[in-house]
C-alpha cells in the first residue's frame, strides 16, 4: 500500500465504500491497488519486451533470408553471364575459323583462276607465235 498526494488523477470513492464496521477502509490519498497495478505493469512490460525481442529476431531472420536470396540470385546471374560469355567466345572462335577457311578457299580459287588465266594467255601467245611463224615462212605455190 502506498500513499500518494496526487489525488487529482484518481476519483475519491463514495463515502459508503470508504467507511466500514471497524472504521475507515481507505484513507484520502491512499492507493490500495498500487501493488496490483504495479505487478500488472511489470508483466505488461515483460510481455512487450518479449514481443520486441521476437519481432527483432524475425526481422533479422528475414533480412538474413533476403541476403541469402540476393547472394543466390547474384551467383546465378554470374553463372549465367559466364555461360553466355563462354558461348559468345566459342561462337566468335567458330566464326573466325569459318572466315579463315572461306578466305583460304577464296585465295585458292583466285590462285587457280590466275594460274588458268596465265596458262590460257601463254597458250594464246604460243598459238599466235606459231601462227606468225607459219605466216612468215615461204609457202610453196600449188597453182
UniProtKB/TrEMBL annotation:
Subcellular location: Cytoplasm, Cytoskeleton, Flagellum axoneme
Domain of life of the native organism: Eukaryota
Keyword terms: Cell projection, Cilium, Coiled coil, Cytoplasm, Cytoskeleton, Flagellum
Biased composition (Basic and acidic residues): 1-15, 107-137
One Pfam family matching this protein: RIB43A
Region feature (Disordered): 1-27, 105-143
InterPro entries assigned to the protein according to its UniProt record, in alphabetical order: RIB43A (IPR008805)
Coiled-coil region: none
Family assignment from sequence similarity: Belongs to the RIB43A family.
Summary of subunit composition and partner proteins: Microtubule inner protein component of sperm flagellar doublet microtubules.
Protein name: CBF1-interacting co-repressor CIR N-terminal domain-containing protein
Organism whose genome encodes this protein: Paramecium tetraurelia
Amino acid at each position: 500500500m502506498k500513499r500518494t498526494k496526487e489525488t487529482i488523477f484518481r476519483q475519491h470513492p463514495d463515502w459508503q465504500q470508504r467507511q466500514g464496521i471497524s472504521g475507515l477502509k481507505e484513507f484520502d490519498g491512499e492507493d490500495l491497488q498500487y501493488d496490483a497495478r504495479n505487478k500488472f505493469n511489470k508483466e505488461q512490460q515483460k510481455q512487450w519486451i518479449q514481443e520486441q525481442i521476437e519481432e527483432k529476431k524475425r526481422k533479422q531472420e528475414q533480412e538474413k533470408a533476403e541476403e541469402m536470396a540476393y547472394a543466390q540470385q547474384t551467383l546465378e546471374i554470374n553463372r549465367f553471364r559466364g555461360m553466355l560469355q563462354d558461348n559468345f567466345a566459342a561462337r566468335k572462335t567458330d566464326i573466325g575459323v569459318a572466315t579463315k577457311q572461306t578466305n583460304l578457299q577464296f585465295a585458292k580459287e583466285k590462285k587457280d583462276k590466275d594460274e588458268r588465266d596465265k596458262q590460257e594467255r601463254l597458250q594464246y601467245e604460243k598459238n599466235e607465235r606459231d601462227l606468225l611463224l607459219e605466216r612468215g615462212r615461204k609457202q610453196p605455190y600449188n597453182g
